[in-house]
Amino acid sequence: MPLGRLLLRTSTVNKMISRNSFVASKPDPSKPNMLRVGLAFGSTAFLWALLFKQHSTDVHEYKTRNGLQ
């Protein structure tokens, strides 16, 4: 039996024996996952608040070091 035919036969057998353990389904846009939405917006708001706090701390330190305050 040629190698090409053997490989073709084994791939056909593998497709018949194995099955897909994951089901692909599109998310329904009319019913959003509110937990994921809340986590996304919450983490974004937290990171922005952290950024503004760090910026004001840096500005205060800059003014103190340069004698502007």
Automatic annotation (TrEMBL):
It comes from the Eukaryota. The keyword Transit peptide applies. Accessory subunit of the mitochondrial membrane respiratory chain NADH dehydrogenase (Complex I), that is believed not to be involved in catalysis. Complex I functions in the transfer of electrons from NADH to the respiratory chain. The immediate electron acceptor for the enzyme is believed to be ubiquinone. Complex I is composed of 45 different subunits. This is NADH dehydrogenase [ubiquinone] 1 subunit C1, mitochondrial. Signal peptide: none annotated. Belongs to the complex I NDUFC1 subunit family. It is a single-pass membrane protein. InterPro entries: NDUFC1. Keywords: Electron transport, Membrane, Mitochondrion, Mitochondrion inner membrane, Respiratory chain, Transit peptide, Transmembrane, Transmembrane helix, Transport. It is found in: Mitochondrion inner membrane. Its main location: mitochondrion.
